[in-house]
Amino acid sequence: MTIQEYTQKLAAILSLTLSRSDVTAVIAETTGHLTDRAEELRAASHSTVDAERLAVEEFGEVSEIAVAIATEFPPRPPIDPADVWWVPEVLMAMLLALATYVFSNSVAIVGTRQAVHSVIALYLGAMPMMVVPGFFASLSRIKYRRFVVIAMVRRLALYGVILAGIGATAIVCLMWTGNETYETMDYVYLGFAALTCMGYCTMAFLSCDGKAQDAFFQRFRRS
Amino acid sequence: MNSVAFREDLETLILSCLSTGPAHGYELSKRIRTLSEDVLSVAEGKLYPALHGLEQAGDISAEWVPQGTKPPRKVYELTAQGRMTLTRKQAEWRTFASSIEAVLQPKNLVTR
Q: Where would a tag sit more exposed on chain B, N or C end, judged by fewer CB atoms within 10 A?
């Protein structure tokens, strides 16, 4: 194995857990060491290929070394969505404003019942847009969860599910009190709300380092 | 040549070698070999995790130093905290070595 092949393998393993800058630093240090050793071996009349192979062999098995190095760089804890600034709130306001503009151009919002109905339609139509980015962010590797943007979209998803819940409750209340006819669209709205909630629950379930899953399965086993 | 098997021993050797002056990883492994008169060797790949661990602990500090036409190298230096750690580890090692020595000396064997 050449020095380049060795460092490429090492970088591939380390990049699973380490940040890009840490990987670059470790690889630069390793390359420097291996190059020095190969030069020394060449000076001792080894061929270039042999010198690189011996230098790499002396350094150690790549996966073993990668694990030993990665242990010294424990991943920093992810940012809690509750700790990020107010950007999610601004984004939510902008998203709802945009949705209102688009919706008001297509449907006339008049009268109490229709207004409630329209707002519900607006909320429930917009909510998946707020939850979906958070859902995908939750699927990212733990090392990316310390990025503020990821924390922001996850907090945005929380607002999404709250507003979807409000919208769904409003529809159910209107149906319950007889102020709403059972239209096909109502079921579509409720379906939207259910999907949003399911998306958020999946996100919450996946967006951690396995602790929630462990707790869930332990509870399941106990019951 | 004996390879240094235990992480703690390796850390003590690193701190001791750095007490003679700053060095990068490769230089350190050579220093260990030279100072031990080729008796001890360090598994080179294991040297770096130990160096990173000592750096995280604050016993050594590191700086990227330009090397002329070659790429810069990460040079390690002993910190004040590292000096204290080294003094403590040296004392521990001497106590351990003298205890082993005492046990190995035939005159200390008690016959009943």
A: C
Distance CA B28, CA A201 (A): 52
Nearest-by-Cβ selection for A69 from B44, B48, B72 = B48
Backbone angles phi, psi at B77, to 5 degrees: -140, 145
pLDDT value, residue A111: 47
Is B71 close to A72, i.e. CB distance below 8 A?
no
Q: Inter-chain contact B45–A68, Cβ cutoff 8 Å? A: yes
CB B48 within 8 A of CB A30: yes
Q: Is the pLDDT of residue A219 over 80?
A: no
- Can you state the angle between helices A20-43 and A3-14, rounded to 10 degrees? 160
Q: What is the pLDDT of residues B72-92, one digit of tens each?
A: 889 999 999 999 999 999 899
Phi, psi of B75 (to 5 degrees): -105, 130
By the 10 Å C-beta count (0-12 exposed, 13-18 middle, 19+ buried), A26 is classed as: buried
Pick the CATH number of B2-108 from 3.40.190.100, 2.102.10.10, 3.40.630.30, 1.10.10.10: 1.10.10.10
| ipTM score | 0.78
